[in-house]
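RECORD TYPE: inverse folding
INPUT: structure tokens
STRUCTURE:
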């Protein structure tokens, strides 16, 4: 492929994340649209008949396992293996928050909504670990991260949960973490806006990741 050395060094990271996100999105799509779970079209249904200590279905437990394994590995990979970027500290915080959400949700049997919320958020932002996405994909990033996530996940967890289970435990704990993830979504979307602005203004002659230090150093 005649990749430059700096691009070849990033290839394993990008290939691994492309593989994981493809698998996780496919499995998430299967759970949401090919099973009897009504979570996508009726998010508040996550809390119907909820009770503490309820059993987690096997197919959703698999989603917990996949997501926990990935973000556990990503903590180490971001710190010691991947290219260090301007947003790497935020990335580490993102992995800690996501891992805490998923693990705590499973441990407390807080409902499978936390795993789907965290996993869905992470899965909808593959540009976090890759080069900047094509311009044609930017509307999709906005739609998933800043529209569907608040509309379906945050509305269900912040509002609908109290209607179905007035004394639901760990309400503020889980929702605070989900709101932190939302702020990170906005943060990363601003990088996409910056990328688009530079392309439109002619300040970028080739596709570069605006989060990387070597882009500025090469000017």
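DESIGNED SEQUENCE:
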């Amino acid at each position: 492929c005649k990749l430059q050395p700096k691009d070849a060094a990033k290839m394993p990271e990008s290939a691994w994340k492309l593989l994981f996100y493809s698998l996780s999105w496919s499995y998430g799509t299967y759970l949401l649209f090919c099973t009897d779970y009504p979570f996508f079209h009726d998010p508040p249904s996550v809390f119907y008949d909820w009770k503490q200590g309820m059993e987690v279905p096997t197919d959703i437990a698999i989603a917990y396992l996949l997501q926990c394994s990935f973000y556990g590995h990503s903590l180490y990979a971001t710190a010691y293996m991947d290219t260090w970027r301007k947003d790497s500290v935020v990335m580490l915080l993102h992995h800690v928050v996501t891992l805490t959400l998923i693990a705590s949700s499973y441990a407390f049997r807080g409902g499978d909504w936390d795993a789907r919320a965290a996993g869905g958020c992470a899965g909808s932002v593959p540009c976090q670990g890759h080069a900047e996405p094509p311009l044609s994909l930017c509307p999709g990033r906005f739609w998933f991260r800043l529209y569907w996530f608040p509309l379906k996940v945050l509305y269900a967890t912040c509002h609908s949960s109290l209607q179905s289970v007035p004394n639901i435990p760990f309400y503020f704990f889980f929702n605070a973490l989900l709101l932190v993830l939302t702020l990170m979504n906005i943060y990363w979307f601003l990088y996409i806006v910056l990328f688009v602005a530079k392309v439109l203004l002619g300040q970028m002659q080739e596709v570069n990741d605006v989060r990387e230090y070597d882009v500025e150093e090469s000017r």
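NOTES: Residues 142 and 189 are 7 Å apart (CA to CA).
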